[in-house]
Design goal:
single chain, 175 residues, mainly alpha, 58% helix, globular
Length: 175
């Protein structure tokens, strides 16, 4: 088990890939593919908030600084670069009782980048310009499907139907 003090040290030292790995350790969504895709500091900050919230440690002194780091990196389109990192950042802000423009803009981004077939792409570009990615879609749903605001913003039933239609062809991390 990683302690809050160890998390603070890794964050201060800029050991973001290691921090992502530690935050995903022994978690149901953990996979090498997820670790590879969540390398930037903003993803590490978000995963720390999510994990500390789950452990009822969301009062840790480092949380406000992590929230500021996340908000500082949000792009004008509402994203944090692509759908997966955006979903993790939104989940973190929601864990920190966030409401308002940052979350609204991110949910709008996710709605706008969802493809006609219900999937999201790894690039997060305009729908139809990149192939849908079942892994990214499953991860977005994993992090946000329980939130009513997310379910209202996106075409949830289309995303679920798309994944269901691929059930026999999905790799282990996506299932």
């Amino acid at each position: 088990m990683t302690t809050v003090r160890q998390i603070e040290r890794m964050w201060s030292a800029g050991q973001f890939p290691r921090l992502v790995g530690q935050m995903l350790e022994a978690r149901p969504e953990a996979s090498d593919r997820l670790r590879e895709r969540l390398g930037p500091s903003v993803a590490a900050a978000a995963l720390v908030i999510v994990r500390l919230s789950e452990l009822r440690q969301d009062h840790a002194p480092m949380i406000p600084g992590l929230i500021r780091a996340i908000l500082r990196e949000q792009r004008p389109d509402g994203s944090w670069g692509e759908p997966l990192t955006t979903a993790v950042c939104v989940r973190a802000l929601m864990c920190a009782d966030g409401e308002g423009k940052a979350i609204d803009d991110a949910l709008r981004y996710l709605a706008q980048t969802q493809r006609a077939d219900g999937l999201w792409s790894s690039a997060g570009v305009e729908p139809g310009r990149a192939a849908g990615d079942p892994f990214i879609t499953a991860a977005v749903l994993y992090y946000l499907a329980s939130d009513g605001r997310f379910r209202q913003a996106v075409r949830m039933s289309d995303a679920v139907a798309a994944l269901e239609s691929m059930r026999g062809r999905l790799d282990e991390p996506t299932r």
